[in-house]
Specification:
There is one protein chain. The protein is α+β, with helices and mostly antiparallel strands. It has two domains: 110 residues, 2-Layer Sandwich (Enolase-like, domain 1); 53 residues, no CATH class. Helices cover 46% and strands 21% of the residues. The strands form two sheets. A three-stranded antiparallel beta sheet has the order 3-4-5, with helices on one face. Strands 1-2 form a two-stranded antiparallel ribbon. Helix 2 packs parallel to helix 3 and helix 5 packs across helix 7. It starts with a helix and ends with a helix.
């Protein structure tokens, strides 16, 4: 089995950072996991590219004898490009880009599933075990806020079907 096929099976759900309904893989965990698998892995950043008043960062990760490069705009918490970003925002984007470049080797790649896929493909991906776990966490948080019904109905249909019983249990225990 190829190293990529092995790495893509790693469950990263315990190491996801959530900010405003967006999921990010902890870059520190991704680096640690990569280096455990390939101690000679390296990465480097290219000079950011300017697009109007916004920036795009680039990171190349070499592992298992192969270099993969990812790019990422410097974004705010809504995934919108920041006009004239400061150094902190650029650094944050660089670390997220590092995690994304590591994902290209297989570790946590499924987090990015659906970024650029047709609608019917996205629907299938949304109900992976990882996504179901994330939806369960959203439901648990919604119970605390008294917004279980609202959170449940915002989910994709396939997820609602799979989590209907779980949501009903949460409702009874609330």
């Amino acid at each position: 089995m190829s190293k990529y096929l092995e790495l893509r099976k790693i469950d990263v759900s315990e190491h996801i950072e959530k900010k405003n309904n967006l999921s990010y893989l902890s870059w520190a965990w991704a680096v640690d996991t990569l280096l455990q698998q390939d101690p000679s892995a390296t990465w480097k950043y290219k000079e950011p590219a300017q697009f109007g008043e916004t920036l795009m960062v680039f990171c190349s990760v070499t592992a298992f004898g192969k270099t993969m490069t990812a790019q990422l705009p410097v974004m705010d918490y809504r995934n919108k490009a920041i006009v004239n970003p400061d150094a902190f925002s650029v650094n944050t984007a660089m670390q997220r880009c590092l995690a994304k470049a590591i994902a290209l080797h297989g570790i946590g790649l499924y987090i990015y599933s659906g970024e650029d896929l047709p609608e019917n493909t996205v629907k299938e991906i949304e109900v992976t075990e990882y996504q179901l776990g994330q939806f369960k966490k959203q439901l648990e948080d919604a119970v605390k806020d008294g917004k279980l019904k609202e959170a449940f109905f915002k989910m994709p249909e396939d997820a609602k079907t799979k989590l209907r019983d779980y949501a009903n249990e949460l409702k009874k225990s609330a």
